[in-house]
Amino acid sequence: MQKKLLNGRYEIEEKVGEGGMATVYRGRDWRLNRQVAIKVLHLQYVNDPDFLSRFQHEAQAAAILSHPNIVNVYDVGQDGDQHYIVMEFVDGTNLKTLIQREGPVNPDRAVVIAQEVAFGLEAAHRFGLVHRDIKSQNIIVSPTGDVKITDFGIAKSHLSTALTQTGVTFGTADYISPEQAQGQTATPQSDLYSLGVTLYEMLTGRLPFTGESTVAIAMQHVNTEPPPVRQYAPQVPAQLEALVLRSMAKDPSKRPGTVREFAELLQRYHHIAEQPTVVAPQPSQRTRNPTPQRLSTPATNENSTTGRMVIPPPPSAVQRRAPRQQNHGCGAFMVGLVVLVGVLSLVILFNTGGFNDGISARPPATSTLPPIASSTAVSTPSNTPAPTITAIPSQTSTTEPTVLPTSLPFPTPAPLPTPTPVPLATVPGVVGLTEEQAIDALTSAGLEPVQSEPQYNDAVAAGVIIAQDPPPDTTLQQGNTVAYVVSLGPELVTVPNLINTSLAFAQNEAESLGLVVEVQQVAGPANTEGFVIAQTPAANLRVEPGHILVLSVSIGDKVRFPDIIGLQLWEAEQRLNNTDGLSLVYVDPQGRDRLGAQFDTFQPNQVISALANEQPVNNGDFVPRGSGIVLGVRAP
Predict the structure, then answer these.
(1) Do 203 and 125 belong together in one domain?
(2) Is 108 marked active-site?
(3) Residue from 29, 133, 151, 593 carrying the catalytic annotation
(4) What is the pLDDT of residues 142-151, one digit of tens each?
(5) One domain, residues 431 and 470
């Protein structure tokens, strides 16, 4: 960064992060004297009018949001070629870093974080703004526990008229919704799916889908059901697992209707999860935070119940005050109590043999009745509230316990059940096998093979597996999917037609395709000199990169000089006469006076040199057609 002060107001102090679109700095707003975060757009997008328009529209749309769970946007501006957004500075850590540092998040804490994110998204959706990139990296948790959504950089607003840029896929593959992965328009349901993935990651410490490429991961979001949460985190209650998987349904219509509905479901689950276990006596709902003493002495606490009721609705205020305000119905109450005590006494005598030994032989204190119908409950004082008395028959009844009100979508959470054993399978290694062999191996192991996008590979023949996910020896539940990548073999290129092109053009074209050029000079018509007149292999054939392409380049209307230097004169003359376009015009005898010491190295009448049109020529050289030849010969 060259500029340290944007528009004379925002001072850039320190770089705190960088993404694909922009760099984020910690800075200061000198006009309002407050710390801010400044996001500066990367320079490669500055000259793209469509991108700049979308950047400004979405930033302005985000600026209208004001919610405790969303990082506030203060300003959008430009200083020269630097476009920036000024935002609230949050002193915290992103959720991704927390998970990597601390491992899976406690389920109660994870539910609270997801609930806060859902409330923030609900505010954005209410203004017609879809985030489109919800992930743990874009959720900041402060040291005090505040949760805020950040980075609306690729959000889509109803205020924007810009279309999606061709070739750009919005969203991160690890969290992308199936509809976004298929190129469909992102909706609030897409944000809900990504939030479900983030909650999955918080509870398990891992992502539901992994792969060697973003395409492989995105296709799993489209086609593959996520592994159960409790496969990796058995401590997570089944009800919470069901909520997470529902939010990650492939079909958006099967997810909760809105993020607000999802937040309310999380809130209800969290409320139920905080209730005392139904096995132990529960305090009356009149006392919101019961003390340990009240929990330990339910029989003497007028605000507690002794029945095994399942989260009963709180009695109305009139019902609680009735015993204190009036005595209407007291006679009926006492009659019912006497009848109840009598019935229980008969049951005790019948079970214990009291008819033979006498009632006094077996006092109630030593009764062998199950503890759910205790003598303390029977001897309830006459001023005990009505809810306590009505709980006694439910203890001795064999009918189902009272269920939750219909407004709650979940049953009462029971103690964490032991996970049902699921058959496991060890992932076999399929790299190096043919596709048919890989499918057989995976199917035999009880796993479902899924083909990822095939890839070219210069070292592996077509049809052979070059990658798999998860890797060999991984333990999975039977029925889980294993993705594999099939080699397409070396990527072939089509040989271009280079005939009648210049040598320079032909070389550049062939080398750009990865072909190796070999040039051969050949004679041709006078007007083709320097141009390709033949090639091997022929045009339109498919070959591997690195294949040799032989280009025959014309040197014009020339004739190859025959191999006659070193022959006897009579033989040389015979070959010249048989070469079309050349003629012998003179024989030059050379004696010792001209050859010096080399004279004795040649035989008499041996051709030792040649001239074509008065220019020296060697065996195999090309000479213009019609050239006159002079042969140098050792004198006899």
Answers:
(1) yes
(2) no
(3) 133
(4) 988 899 998 7
(5) yes
